[in-house]
Amino acid sequence: MSTVFFEASHLAIRFGGVVAVNDVSFTVRKGEVFAIIGPNGAGKTTIFNLISLIYPPTAGRITFEGRELTGLAPDRVASLGIARTFQNIELFEHATVLQNLLIGRHVHHRTRVWEELLFLPKVKRAELEHREEVERIIDFLDLQHYRDSLVAGLPYGVRKVVEVGRALCAKPKLLLLDEPSSGLNPEETDDMAFWIEDIKNHLGITVLMVEHDMNLVSRVSDRVLALNQGQMLAMGTAAQVQSHPSVIEAYLGGEGD
Amino acid sequence: MRFLFKTNYQQDVRLFTHGGQVFWYTVLGVLLLVAPFILSEYVLSQLVFVLIYSIVGFGLMVLTGYTGQVSLGHAAFLGVGAYTEALLQSHGVPFFISIPCAAIMAGGVGVIVGLPALRLRGLYLAIATLAFGIIVEEILTRWESVTGGGAGKHVKPVSFFGVPLDADETFYYLCLFVVVVCALGVLNLMRSPTGRAFIAIRDSEVSAASLGISLARYKTLSFAISAALTGLAGALYAHKLSFITPEQFGLLVSIELITIVILGGAGALHGAVFGSIILIVLPQLIAIAKDFLPEGVGSQTGLQSFVFGAVLVGFILFEPMGLYGRWLKIRTYFSLFPFYRRGLFRRQKVYMKSDRLK
Lengths: 257, 358
Description:
The complex is a heterodimer.
Chain A: E1 6-15, E2 18-28, E3 33-37, H1 44-51, E4 59-64, E5 67-68, H2 74-80, E6 82-84, H3 97-104, H4 113-118, H5 121-140, H6 156-169, E7 174-178, H7 186-201, E8 206-210, H8 214-220, E9 223-228, E10 231-236, H9 238-242, H10 245-252
Chain B: H1 10-13, H2 19-38, H3 41-66, H4 74-90, H5 95-117, H6 122-142, H7 144-147, E1 153-154, E2 159-160, E3 163-164, H8 168-190, H9 193-203, H10 205-210, H11 215-241, E4 243-244, H12 251-264, H13 269-292, H14 295-298, H15 303-318, H16 322-336
Antiparallel strand pairs in B: 1-4, 2-3
């Protein structure tokens, strides 16, 4: 492999006097599940927001398949093949699950506005193609029951899955999952772990995730990066990171405290 | 209750989802077509106003109901459309060219107004559009050489190659045709990627952007489409009134136009039509009620504004989904009877949203 799939180098961001992320560098290899862990406020979600360009980094650069992301408009990230979910679920509440998933197909739409105003046969054909792609994801995530329900009325666990589905509908190369298991019961977390494995093995999508649940992390992830207060603590397999002294110190407190 | 058995994806793409809808819309269509032969001249003329306001309603529905952007300056687009039409007509441009031109002109102005919308949201956007409305009204008043200023401007009746089509019936059919075309256009847009992008922006800007929806492009587009529809309505409005002055496109009119969406119900085109009906019918009801009210109340000049205000507040408090929402609830009540529960329709927060993650 000549070019690095995804690379963040010397990433830093400061909000006023708070250094949320400081000199964080890591690479994600194609086809792996890479997890970022750390206590609350470690800067995990901030890294995600830096990748989706919600914040511009104070220093450092992010490259994806050899292309530099920093400086692009936020909506360009998706068209390069990066899709994400949000920690607090940012679904389109007043639309149905189906519509939400169809919006996920947005990067693949090729029809022009005037063609859509007239709803030419071309638009109709494109709509049916989008629908088929969406149905594939619905089958994949077992969402058949909820197809026509409004998101506003769905239970939390289902919304979480719908959000993953919406990101998958974009057919990304890299999927960012921001705490996929937060708020889920053990059974749903189990399902989520299955799906993450399937996303990696069957859909061939590389996954970068932020997660608190160490069971889930050690089950699905190939490599783990531990952060604390914006600093990198350790990187390696889940077992290596979990037994790393500075990680234990960050989670449980050091001997001197 | 009707259960639809879906066997292919085409069923979800169609405009009419089942035979019942086709039947009722055909009935409505036939009634509208024969209306000129049944209704009195006065009622027909009011119906024309309902049609014109419906087009404005569609425009506002695209912007406020679907994209979630506020505009308190829509009367300005109506004005731009009306004056463009008046001007082109006075130069002898045929109506089938001048009316689209009025829409394009208003759409162009809409793009300019849409630009600040990229940076402003909620209340701030409302104020920016409000200021825009006042500026346009002022320009219409001051630019006397073009607009005739405060003295007003005469609009020629619609004519087709020199043959005047000023009969009420012909004009009614023209308006009906434009309404149907606009409604189909908006419906088509809403079942396509662009319409879904609008809804995405309304519900969550952050995730819309993360899915590749360019906020700049789609917000501007929404403003342009909304303004173009309003400009189109403005052109018809100018013909209907046959005499236009800048005050007809002032702030109060903008607020009246917003009430179409709020009273009708944001988020569905039916709402725009229902809202326009109230906007036309309510003043008539007030006029009738005046005869029965005590002397001191009935003759008050502010009575109409008061009633409008009260109705608006009432709707926001008790029926945020508007008349269309009420209609949906009644229909659901009967189709689910006796299993309807009160929480079935939860309050929509379409108009203003807290800013998350920004």
